[in-house]
Amino acid sequence: MRYVKWVIILLFWALVAAFLHYTLPQHDIARISDTYEKRIDPGENRWFWSQSASGESMSVTGRDVFFIQTRLNNDKVMVYRNEDTGWGWPPYFKFDTSNLQAEAADLRSTSGSPQWVVITHYGWRNEFLSIYPNAIGLRPVEGPDVRIIPWFNIIFLTLLVAICWAIYVRWRRFREARIDPVFEEMGDNLDDAGGWLKGLFGRKR
After folding, report:
1. pLDDT at 176
2. Per the UniProt record, which residue ranges are transmembrane (predicted)?
């Protein structure tokens, strides 16, 4: 049972880590090579797409989605989708998809004369599932080696760890003060009952 317990605990924290990695903002330094629009009809991967753009009907299944093609500073190709998050999840409250696409188009450059930008996004890129990270912001930078410190993630994760630790400490104190004494008393009562039954049946012999 100990192994089952630890497997469940590890699976739980792995899911939490995956959820945070997908949801929290990430930063890539890249050169925008092209921008385009494509008709998308989400299927089994619909969970990785926004439900609909802000102001659109939720009954629309297929829709046009903006994309931003880039080449990262490590020379790998990366493609981002550009969709509103609106009032849904994750709570980025992004409503400026068209403006962001116009900024991305204006910052396109070539390998001979690169314009490097920091692209803030969330999500994952997976070719097999045809899912793309969602760009939520971009800004030009001087070069591909600029240092980006993820202050929001640092503060958020620090607060999250502090909250989890506070909950754990309070639960442990509550268990030691209220729950453990009850189980100890139940164990003592069972021991007393067992001794009484043993004495009763022993006298009958």
Report:
1. 78
2. 148-169
